[in-house]
Every structure is written in structure tokens, then in C-alpha cells.
Amino acid sequence: MADIHLAIFQGKQVRKTIHNKEWWFVVEDAVLALIDSSDPKQYVKRMKLRDPELNKGWVRIVHTLPVETGGGKQRMSCANTEGIFRIVQSIPSPKAEPFKRWLARVGYERVQEIEDPELATKRTRFLYKAKGYPDSWIEKRMRGIAIREELT
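User: That's the sequence. What structure does it adopt?
Assistant: C-alpha cells below.
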């Protein structure tokens, strides 16, 4: 049997699969992790009724993809990271609020980096450091990035 790929969010398992070289997440699993209902299918239907723009764009956001499950591959509704973020924005649940605040903070940070690109460099250094890379490696990596940018 093939490996079942899982992401863990707030203690809940969210199945995922690779499609077009990026992760796609099972929509019902992601929604279930953020709501107080045990019926994510009905919740998604009601959510799409409450949010006409989400409903209108649903076919661009969500694709039916084969996902490995305990019973073998099954076709399930999946969304990539951007799509899942859009879906989460439509969930009016207290459980979704920390995730929405995180999305807002990340969006704000990226806007700041557009206005001041040096902030992006500082963030990159900080993330490498947080992942445990030594300063010498980080410096070489940052120089390599700068050289590639000059060449392209």
C-alpha cells in the first residue's frame, strides 16, 4: 500500500497529495479541523451559499484528485495552499480565527517586504537560523542567492 500523506493542523489529520508539483489538501479534512461540526460536507455546502464569490470560484480553487486512503486511492475534493487559504477565510468559526490572524500577519509582512525588500532578506536569514543552519552556511546561501539574482 502507498503511503498516506498527512499534515497535522490543530491536532487533526489533513490528507494531502502531490499534483502539478505542489501539495493539494483534502478540503473536508481542512474544514473539519476548523469547525465544531462533524459533517464537513454539509458545512462546505452552507459555506458556499454564504459566500457567493467563493461559490463562483469553487471550480478554479477545488479539483477532484486521487488521494491515498486506508482503503486505497479515492477521488476527493482538494485545494492547493492558496485555495485552502481562501476557503479558510470563509469559515466563521472561533477555531478558524487563530489561522485567519496568522494569514493576516503573513500577508502584512509580505506587503512590508514589497515596500522594503531588505526585510525579506532579514526574514530569510531568521528562518534559516531558526531551522538550525550555522551562520557560515547562511552567509554562503545568501551570497549564492545574490549572485543568481545578478546573473538573471
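Strands lie at 5-9, 12-19, 22-26, 62-69, 72-80.
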